[in-house]
Amino acid sequence: MDEPTGPSAAPTAGPDRSVARFYDRLAADYHLVYADWEASVTRQGASLDALLRARLGDAPADVLDCACGIGTQAIGLAARGHRVTGTDLSAAAAARAAREAAARGLRLPTAAADMRRLPCGDGRFDAVVCADNALPHLLAAADVRAAFAELHRVLRPGGLLLLSTRPYDELRRGRPTSTAPQVSTDAGRRTVTFQLWHWHEDGERYDLEHFRLAHRDGGEGAGGEDREDWGAVSVHRTSYWALTHDQLSGFAAEAGFTAVEWQPPAATGFFQPVLLARAAGPGGTGRSAD
Known about the structure:
Elements: H1 15-26, H2 37-56, E1 62-65, H3 72-78, E2 83-88, H4 91-103, E3 110-112, E4 125-130, H5 141-153, E5 155-164, H6 168-174, E6 182-186, E7 189-199, E8 205-214, E9 216-220, E10 226-229, E11 233-241, H7 245-254, E12 257-263, H8 265-268, E13 274-279
């Protein structure tokens, strides 16, 4: 099996490192952005598995999750029998994904790697997953083109791309400035996370501040009342390009993808809109297709 080479594939300076640091610092607690991470792993894995099997046939697939994070989608797919390899810009996140998979008795080789320079052979995979708004961290057209070219390169002819982002067509019209607070409980302690968004003048890009407040028992106040203590507040910052469906479809077509389509959450059960596309080339994947 052709597996990723290792951390040397990740960039070490410039804006790319700032994105890697953002996720490196969040890796240990990233599950707290979900109300129930284990349920999300199961639910997202089921949705993506259904999309894969409907388009590639019922046999397990060789899948690259090129933005695997702590394994939310990769673990869910591996649990359904797919042979999954994970890469991520964050070495800490990719390492945690491998540990989480191993703890569940699943095999998930991972490495730190930039999706614009994937350490995988040509035509290696039946499918590539790039989910959870990962690609919009790329802020320039040249970088988006480089990523799509790599995703196409590592797919077999007729292979399937599954890419999800936030619903940016809608979000660019409203330009929200924050997200609703998300409350989760871990080991009996509550955590609140939320984001502030600062839109650029171009109306397409925005800077994000991710806030995390961890609750701890404050004990009893001087008057005998319960005291709330939310401890230290952590803030992490990164940036995104709010690419519309038409923009992303255009980049995919430029890279050689065909049969480009978007499926909404109501149709897939996945929590974000999903772009589906086929790698160009003669024939298919050697599997039954729709």
